[in-house]
Amino acid sequence: MEFSSITYKSQFEIVLLGGTARMERAFALLTCMIVAFLGVGFAVAQDIAPDFTLTDIDGVEFSLSDYRNGIVLLNFISCPCRFCVAEIPHLRSLYEEFGEDLTIMSISDSDSVETLREFKQENNIDWIVSRDDIGYTESYDLPFPYHPTIILIDREGVIRYERVGFVDKFVLRSEVIKLLQEFPAVNDVAVSDVRPQRVVMPNNTSTSINVTVENQGNVGVAFNVILHCNLTQIGTQEVILDAGLSTVLTFHWAPTLVGTYTLWAEASQVPGEVNLTNNLFVFGNITAQAFLPADLNYDGIVNVLDFSIVAVAFGCTPEDLDWNEMADLNNDLIINILDISIAATEFGKTV
Ligand SMILES: [Ca+2]
Ligand SMILES: [Ca+2]
Ligand SMILES: [Ca+2]
Q: Where in the chain do CATH 3.40.30.10 domains reside?
């Protein structure tokens, strides 16, 4: 493969301040050929890869830490570099084989966004391409010249492989598989709690139900959470959760029929998930009973407890802090002796 000394022109203009132009070109050619064909491997530091936040060529901000739970391949490029171009089909092969298990980021510290857009289009690149306008590449203290360079970062964010110069897909594939086997992906989602606002309620009234779900695996996943009463679905919500995180989903339910219902939630199985026992959480029973006027605490009987609720709000109008709409039994926007008398006529009634 022919190598063009133009590839590293800008860098050589900085570094090679002395000597003739011919000597500079010869030195550049020799150095780059050595780098490109043999590669310059150097001891892997086992350091945590420094985090960064960049904006890709489509204007989307991203950080290395966003991908902490997967394997990341950093590909430092310079668009005129022929070996950078030659490496792209090898990276594409990895991209297609490993899918979401491997995130590739091609980053240039020397090209304009417009040039990178053309590079991405001409080379049919599907992964992240970004301009390094924060000097991130320099944090790796790479030997000059350093385009292309491959850096592999494991699931724990540790630099595990560094290579300056062209490297083919067979070498990279072996390294990626090694990391995948060392840190296998674990897909495991779970429902850890179902908590209704009320367990006894008049029918045709609504209650909220909180469902807590967790990602107990080590990779980000998307899944559905389905809430049931008996065998009927109350609702479904889609969740996207990073590894180790949990979230609370709120459902609303208004049973139309009087009865006792078993409330339970399930998380849909995610690809590769083995542990399914924690995908199901059964809360237990929730009761919808006939509406009973003056049963303000929904316990199925009008008694002193309901009177005490009216008493707390006695004298209140909607402007007052202790206002209780439920205690205004005659709906005249004031809680007074009339509401007490209605409660008295209902006293002792049960559903
Ligand atoms: Ca599970
Ligand atoms: Ca009651
Ligand atoms: Ca009233």
A: 39-182
CB 1 within 8 A of CB 33: no
Reference 187, options 266, 242, 247, 246; nearest CA is 242
Question: Can you say how many angstroms the Cα of residue 41 is from the centroid of all Cα atoms in its chain?
Answer: 34
Q: Find, among 99, 299, 136, the residue nearest to 219 by Cα.
A: 99
Joined tokens for residue 311: 């008493």
Does the N-terminal peptide bond of residue 145 adopt cis geometry, omega within 30 degrees of 0? yes
Gap from CA of 207 to ligand 1 centroid (Å) = 27
pLDDT tens digits for range 66-93 = 887 789 999 999 998 999 999 999 999 9
* Superfamily (CATH H level) for 304-346: Dockerin domain (1.10.1330.10)
Cα(344) to centroid of ligand 3, in Å?
Answer: 13
Count of residues for the chain?
Answer: 351
Does pTM surpass 0.90? Answer: no
Determine the Cα–Cα distance for residues 287 and 260; give it in Å rounded to an integer: 4
CA of 327 to the centre of ligand 3 (A): 7
- In this prediction, residue 44 carries a pLDDT of 54
Q: What is the whole-number distance in angstroms between the Cα of residue 300 and the centre of ligand 3?
A: 22
